[in-house]
Structures are given as structure tokens and as C-alpha cells.
Amino acid sequence: MAMTSNNLQQNALGLTAKPALLLVDMINGFTDLSCALGSDCPEVVAANVQLLEAFRALGLPVFFTTVVYHSDQQAKVFRQKVPALNLLQPDSHWVKVDSALEPADGEPVIEKQWASAFFDTDLDQQLSAVGVDSLVVTGLTTSGCVRASAVDALQNDYQVVIAEEAVGDRNPEAHRANLFDLNAKYADVLPVAQVLSQLTALCGDKG
């Protein structure tokens, strides 16, 4: 995706030799159109499958997130703003990772209550524990949890790459605008094929 911002210098940082894949909220509640929170996004799921297979083949860390509310006190204002979030109850179908992306043994599923994968979770500590310093961020939705997670990743000093075809939004205009903005200031937005090329160049000897 060719995206520029007038009069603002920006450097393409890409990935380091210690990347991880962060799949943000690729759960049934967001991938199933029958849920009030969901969208029709089989192409996003397919792109995530492609990246997941590549990271696993290279022996690189993979992290998932889901949204779960265990009590009425969690994220009260967020849930007042978006009442459909109340569907995301413990052990419900909606909070489980989409079956096409079933986490393997040892792949953490981070429970969160707000938009960012980092806010009030131990994700940063888990990434640091395995030496990760860059992230490929994917998932749903571009204008919401993906954006919040990517910005917080930057604020925790991770180099961030967003895999373009592996993120999606219910609103196409919001999707495009947020990818433009993220690429301008917070991350590199790259096609999946380019992400895979970078991975192979940096980490191919791990396969």
C-alpha cells in the first residue's frame, strides 16, 4: 500500500530478527456476521492463516487476544458506549478464537477488556520474556482494537508492522483512513507478501 503524508518525514522500520505475531481479536464474535459485533471477513481470516502458518514454520512466537468480561464492573464506560460488548461473556462461543486460527499448545491467548492488547494485561511482560522487539499486528478491527494495540506497541518500543490484508473493519472508509494514519506515524503497513519476504530474510534459518 503506497501511503504518504505531506511534509512529514517517516522511516520504514520493518521487522527485527526477533518478531512475534499478534492476532488481535480474531474471535468468533468479530469474524461471525451473525454476531452484532461481527463482520463478513473471510479474506482477513485467510490472510491470518497464511501468516500464522509462516510464523509457526519459523518457530517464532505467536500471541492471540480475546475480549472477555467477567463482571459488570469491568470496562463499564466502554460497555455503555458499545452495549453489544456485553455478549463477550466467559466460555461463550463469541470469545473463542475463530476455529480456522485455533491456537496451538503454548500460544498464549491474552484476555483483555479494552481496545488495546497492552492495556491492563501482561502482554508486554510476556513479549519481553521471549525477547521480542518487533510485532506483526493483524486482526479486527482496524479502527478500533488493531489501531489501539499498534499505537500501544509503539509506546512500548516495539517496531510494528501491520499486515494489510490481515486486518479489517466494518467500515471500509474507516479501514482505509486508519491504515493511512497508522502508516504515517505509528507503524509500517505492508502487504502480507512483503511481510512474509521480510520474515524469510530475517528468520529463514530458523525453519
TrEMBL record:
<dbReference type="Pfam" id="PF00857">
    <property type="entry name" value="Isochorismatase"/>
</dbReference>
<keyword id="KW-0378">Hydrolase</keyword>
<dbReference type="InterPro" id="IPR000868">
    <property type="entry name" value="Isochorismatase-like_dom"/>
</dbReference>
<protein>
    <submittedName>
        <fullName>Isochorismatase family protein</fullName>
    </submittedName>
</protein>
<dbReference type="InterPro" id="IPR036380">
    <property type="entry name" value="Isochorismatase-like_sf"/>
</dbReference>
<dbReference type="InterPro" id="IPR050272">
    <property type="entry name" value="Isochorismatase-like_hydrls"/>
</dbReference>
<feature type="domain" description="Isochorismatase-like">
    <location>
        <begin position="20"/>
        <end position="193"/>
    </location>
</feature>
